[in-house]
Amino acid sequence: EADIYQTPRYLVIGTGKKITLECSQTMGHDKMYWYQQDPGMELHLIHYSYGVNSTEKGDLSSESTVSRIRTEHFPLTLESARPSHTSQYLCASSEYPGTGRISGELFFGEGSRLTVL
Amino acid sequence: DAKTTQPPSMDCAEGRAANLPCNHSTISGNEYVYWYRQIHSQGPQYIIHGLKNNETNEMASLIITEDRKSSTLILPHATLRDTAVYYCIVTQGTIQGAQKLVFGQGTRLTINP
Question: For A89, which residue in chain B has the nearest alpha carbon?
Protein backbone atom coordinates (compact mmCIF):
# COMPACT_ATOMS: atom_id res chain seq x y z
CA GLU A 1 0.00 0.00 0.00
CA ALA A 2 1.27 3.43 -0.95
CA ASP A 3 1.42 5.96 1.87
CA ILE A 4 0.40 9.08 0.03
CA TYR A 5 -2.61 11.07 1.15
CA GLN A 6 -4.63 13.84 -0.39
CA THR A 7 -7.14 16.12 1.30
CA PRO A 8 -9.83 17.05 0.72
CA ARG A 9 -11.14 14.21 -1.43
CA TYR A 10 -14.04 16.36 -2.61
CA LEU A 11 -14.41 20.15 -2.52
CA VAL A 12 -17.19 22.37 -3.86
CA ILE A 13 -16.50 26.09 -3.64
CA GLY A 14 -17.61 29.37 -5.15
CA THR A 15 -15.76 31.42 -7.74
CA GLY A 16 -13.01 33.66 -6.39
CA LYS A 17 -12.18 31.57 -3.34
CA LYS A 18 -8.62 30.60 -2.48
CA ILE A 19 -8.10 26.88 -2.08
CA THR A 20 -5.22 24.64 -1.11
CA LEU A 21 -5.13 20.95 -1.93
CA GLU A 22 -2.94 19.03 0.47
CA CYS A 23 -0.66 16.12 -0.44
CA SER A 24 1.49 14.24 2.02
CA GLN A 25 3.62 11.11 1.72
CA THR A 26 5.31 9.15 4.45
CA MET A 27 7.70 7.17 2.24
CA GLY A 28 10.52 9.73 2.28
CA HIS A 29 10.33 10.13 -1.49
CA ASP A 30 12.17 13.11 -2.86
CA LYS A 31 10.22 13.47 -6.12
CA MET A 32 6.61 14.63 -6.07
CA TYR A 33 4.13 15.46 -8.82
CA TRP A 34 0.71 16.98 -9.47
CA TYR A 35 -1.44 15.74 -12.35
CA GLN A 36 -4.76 17.17 -13.49
CA GLN A 37 -7.49 15.02 -15.04
CA ASP A 38 -10.88 16.10 -16.37
CA PRO A 39 -13.60 13.39 -16.31
CA GLY A 40 -12.96 10.75 -18.96
CA MET A 41 -9.90 12.56 -20.21
CA GLU A 42 -6.13 12.11 -20.04
CA LEU A 43 -3.92 12.93 -17.08
CA HIS A 44 -1.69 15.96 -17.56
CA LEU A 45 1.39 16.82 -15.49
CA ILE A 46 1.05 20.35 -14.10
CA HIS A 47 3.79 20.56 -11.44
CA TYR A 48 6.64 18.48 -10.08
CA SER A 49 9.42 18.77 -7.57
CA TYR A 50 12.89 17.20 -7.33
CA GLY A 51 13.03 17.79 -3.59
CA VAL A 52 12.81 20.45 -0.89
CA ASN A 53 12.76 24.01 -2.28
CA SER A 54 12.43 22.69 -5.84
CA THR A 55 9.30 23.27 -7.95
CA GLU A 56 8.93 22.96 -11.72
CA LYS A 57 6.14 23.53 -14.23
CA GLY A 58 4.77 20.48 -15.96
CA ASP A 59 3.64 19.92 -19.52
CA LEU A 60 0.22 21.54 -19.07
CA SER A 61 0.07 25.21 -18.13
CA SER A 62 -1.79 25.76 -14.88
CA GLU A 63 -2.79 28.81 -12.86
CA SER A 64 -2.11 26.88 -9.68
CA THR A 65 1.08 27.16 -7.66
CA VAL A 66 2.92 24.66 -5.50
CA SER A 67 5.47 24.73 -2.71
CA ARG A 68 7.88 22.18 -1.26
CA ILE A 69 9.10 23.29 2.14
CA ARG A 70 9.20 19.79 3.63
CA THR A 71 10.04 16.51 1.93
CA GLU A 72 6.73 14.92 2.82
CA HIS A 73 4.43 17.78 1.87
CA PHE A 74 3.57 19.21 -1.58
CA PRO A 75 0.48 21.45 -1.43
CA LEU A 76 -1.20 22.96 -4.50
CA THR A 77 -2.87 26.38 -4.26
CA LEU A 78 -5.35 28.26 -6.42
CA GLU A 79 -5.45 31.92 -5.39
CA SER A 80 -8.79 32.61 -7.05
CA ALA A 81 -10.74 29.58 -8.18
CA ARG A 82 -12.81 29.68 -11.38
CA PRO A 83 -15.22 27.17 -12.95
CA SER A 84 -12.50 26.30 -15.49
CA HIS A 85 -10.47 24.88 -12.57
CA THR A 86 -13.10 22.20 -11.99
CA SER A 87 -11.20 18.93 -12.32
CA GLN A 88 -9.59 16.08 -10.44
CA TYR A 89 -6.10 16.74 -9.09
CA LEU A 90 -3.84 13.73 -8.47
CA CYS A 91 -0.66 13.84 -6.42
CA ALA A 92 2.15 11.31 -6.81
CA SER A 93 5.62 10.62 -5.52
CA SER A 94 8.65 8.56 -6.50
CA GLU A 95 12.03 7.83 -5.03
CA TYR A 96 15.40 8.56 -6.59
CA PRO A 97 16.58 5.24 -7.98
CA GLY A 98 20.29 5.92 -7.73
CA THR A 99 22.88 6.96 -10.28
CA GLY A 100 22.57 5.08 -13.54
CA ARG A 101 19.27 3.43 -12.63
CA ILE A 102 15.84 4.09 -14.03
CA SER A 103 13.16 5.46 -11.79
CA GLY A 104 10.70 2.92 -10.51
CA GLU A 105 7.06 3.42 -9.96
CA LEU A 106 5.03 6.49 -9.21
CA PHE A 107 2.78 6.20 -6.18
CA PHE A 108 -0.47 8.09 -6.61
CA GLY A 109 -2.91 9.41 -4.04
CA GLU A 110 -6.66 8.94 -4.33
CA GLY A 111 -7.14 12.40 -5.83
CA SER A 112 -8.94 15.61 -4.93
CA ARG A 113 -12.05 16.32 -6.95
CA LEU A 114 -12.60 20.08 -7.17
CA THR A 115 -15.83 21.71 -8.33
CA VAL A 116 -15.95 25.48 -8.69
CA LEU A 117 -19.42 26.98 -9.03
CA ASP B 1 9.39 10.31 -25.52
CA ALA B 2 8.02 7.89 -28.10
CA LYS B 3 4.31 7.89 -28.90
CA THR B 4 2.20 4.83 -28.11
CA THR B 5 -0.93 3.47 -29.76
CA GLN B 6 -3.45 1.37 -27.86
CA PRO B 7 -6.94 0.13 -28.75
CA PRO B 8 -9.52 2.34 -27.04
CA SER B 9 -11.41 -0.56 -25.50
CA MET B 10 -11.31 -4.32 -24.99
CA ASP B 11 -13.46 -6.96 -23.35
CA CYS B 12 -12.37 -10.14 -21.64
CA ALA B 13 -14.21 -12.92 -19.83
CA GLU B 14 -13.56 -13.38 -16.15
CA GLY B 15 -10.95 -16.06 -15.50
CA ARG B 16 -9.42 -15.77 -18.95
CA ALA B 17 -6.12 -14.14 -19.83
CA ALA B 18 -6.39 -10.50 -20.86
CA ASN B 19 -3.85 -9.49 -23.49
CA LEU B 20 -3.48 -5.75 -23.97
CA PRO B 21 -1.42 -4.63 -26.98
CA CYS B 22 0.62 -1.48 -27.36
CA ASN B 23 2.46 -0.18 -30.40
CA HIS B 24 5.51 2.03 -29.94
CA SER B 25 7.24 1.89 -33.31
CA THR B 26 9.37 5.00 -32.69
CA ILE B 27 10.83 3.78 -29.41
CA SER B 28 14.51 4.53 -28.97
CA GLY B 29 17.14 2.32 -27.42
CA ASN B 30 17.15 3.99 -24.00
CA GLU B 31 13.37 4.16 -23.57
CA TYR B 32 11.47 1.91 -21.22
CA VAL B 33 7.92 0.61 -21.54
CA TYR B 34 5.75 1.23 -18.48
CA TRP B 35 2.22 0.03 -17.76
CA TYR B 36 -0.16 1.64 -15.31
CA ARG B 37 -3.86 1.21 -14.73
CA GLN B 38 -6.55 3.49 -13.35
CA ILE B 39 -9.62 2.04 -11.72
CA HIS B 40 -12.67 4.29 -11.84
CA SER B 41 -10.86 7.65 -11.56
CA GLN B 42 -8.73 6.57 -8.62
CA GLY B 43 -5.05 7.39 -8.74
CA PRO B 44 -3.19 5.33 -11.36
CA GLN B 45 -1.45 2.19 -10.14
CA TYR B 46 1.91 1.00 -11.40
CA ILE B 47 1.83 -2.49 -12.91
CA ILE B 48 5.15 -3.30 -14.53
CA HIS B 49 7.93 -1.93 -16.71
CA GLY B 50 10.65 -3.29 -18.97
CA LEU B 51 13.38 -2.38 -21.41
CA LYS B 52 13.81 -5.32 -23.77
CA ASN B 53 13.45 -8.53 -21.80
CA ASN B 54 10.12 -9.98 -20.86
CA GLU B 55 9.14 -9.20 -17.30
CA THR B 56 6.78 -10.84 -14.82
CA ASN B 57 5.58 -9.85 -11.39
CA GLU B 58 2.67 -10.75 -9.14
CA MET B 59 0.27 -8.62 -11.15
CA ALA B 60 1.11 -9.23 -14.78
CA SER B 61 3.56 -10.19 -17.48
CA LEU B 62 5.08 -7.86 -20.04
CA ILE B 63 6.10 -9.24 -23.40
CA ILE B 64 8.24 -6.93 -25.56
CA THR B 65 8.92 -7.89 -29.17
CA GLU B 66 12.50 -8.37 -30.24
CA ASP B 67 12.49 -5.17 -32.31
CA ARG B 68 10.84 -3.38 -29.31
CA LYS B 69 8.24 -1.77 -31.57
CA SER B 70 5.35 -3.30 -29.66
CA SER B 71 4.52 -4.93 -26.37
CA THR B 72 1.71 -6.87 -24.71
CA LEU B 73 0.57 -6.71 -21.13
CA ILE B 74 -0.88 -10.01 -19.96
CA LEU B 75 -3.19 -10.39 -16.98
CA PRO B 76 -3.16 -14.20 -16.66
CA HIS B 77 -6.48 -14.75 -14.88
CA ALA B 78 -8.59 -11.63 -15.17
CA THR B 79 -11.06 -10.81 -12.40
CA LEU B 80 -13.84 -8.25 -12.26
CA ARG B 81 -11.54 -6.02 -10.22
CA ASP B 82 -9.20 -5.76 -13.21
CA THR B 83 -11.76 -3.61 -15.03
CA ALA B 84 -9.87 -0.34 -15.53
CA VAL B 85 -8.15 1.93 -18.04
CA TYR B 86 -4.69 0.58 -18.85
CA TYR B 87 -1.95 2.98 -19.94
CA CYS B 88 1.14 2.02 -21.95
CA ILE B 89 3.85 4.66 -21.55
CA VAL B 90 7.23 4.86 -23.21
CA THR B 91 9.79 7.10 -21.59
CA GLN B 92 13.48 7.64 -21.12
CA GLY B 93 12.51 7.99 -17.52
CA THR B 94 14.47 10.41 -15.54
CA ILE B 95 15.90 13.85 -15.40
CA GLN B 96 17.67 13.90 -12.06
CA GLY B 97 15.35 11.05 -11.17
CA ALA B 98 12.05 12.81 -11.85
CA GLN B 99 9.72 10.41 -13.62
CA LYS B 100 7.68 12.69 -15.91
CA LEU B 101 5.19 10.23 -17.34
CA VAL B 102 2.91 11.21 -20.21
CA PHE B 103 -0.42 9.38 -19.99
CA GLY B 104 -2.38 8.91 -23.22
CA GLN B 105 -5.95 7.71 -23.70
CA GLY B 106 -5.17 4.14 -22.70
CA THR B 107 -7.30 1.03 -23.22
CA ARG B 108 -10.52 0.66 -21.30
CA LEU B 109 -10.58 -3.03 -20.32
CA THR B 110 -13.89 -4.48 -19.22
CA ILE B 111 -13.92 -7.89 -17.55
CA ASN B 112 -17.27 -9.61 -18.03
CA PRO B 113 -18.69 -12.24 -15.64
Answer: B43
